[in-house]
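Entry 14. Structure prediction run on the chain below.
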Amino acid sequence: MSNHAHKLEFWSLTAVLLILLGMEWGGLFNGLNSWVNSTLPHGGFLVNLLTDTASLTASLLYILFFFAWDFKKRGRMSRFTLDLSLGFVLSMVLVAILKVSFATPRPGEVSVSWTLLERVKNLDYFSFPSGHTAKASIFAYFLSRRWKKLWPLWGGWAVSIALSRLLLHVHWFGDVLFSLLLGSWVGMLVVLTEDWWLPYYRAIVNALKLGVFDVEWSP
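Output returned:
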């Protein structure tokens, strides 16, 4: 994909995400959310196992694995692992900010009137957006760039994580829909701005003499 097409896709996705944010803020998902939540069955043991493959612990282990693989092959981090790590951190920061901002209770929970500090302390109480789905989406985006022929596998995994969150009745439909798109958006943002932030990153790493975290210009 050309850089122009990539930028067009990014701005189109930005517009879609802004529309979805407006719909969430205006409560336009409420009817659909309730219908999906009341219609879907409750997931069991296997669904729990599936959803755990996108947990925070699992995600950190994946990144650690890729870093260890890089170190074994080339003695330092690859651009793929750096981009993935940055995208992961950025997506989790955005998820936290949105959870605090929207304060949407999970299915079966009640709305609360907490202070900002109380919201921050109880992030897991809120459902919008889905952290598990966002993590799966950001991994799927970069894995699809790295191993292009396997993109149906990575995309299918991300969608299955979204479905698992619905089957466990810990998220609303609007939560997982937004998060699936958010992960791809963050991935695009990291890639499109790489020429801007990468020189600063390399300068800091070299100044701290952390050569193992330095990367080459080529992925």
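Residues 79-102 form the longest helix (24 residues).
Filed with the rest of this week's runs.
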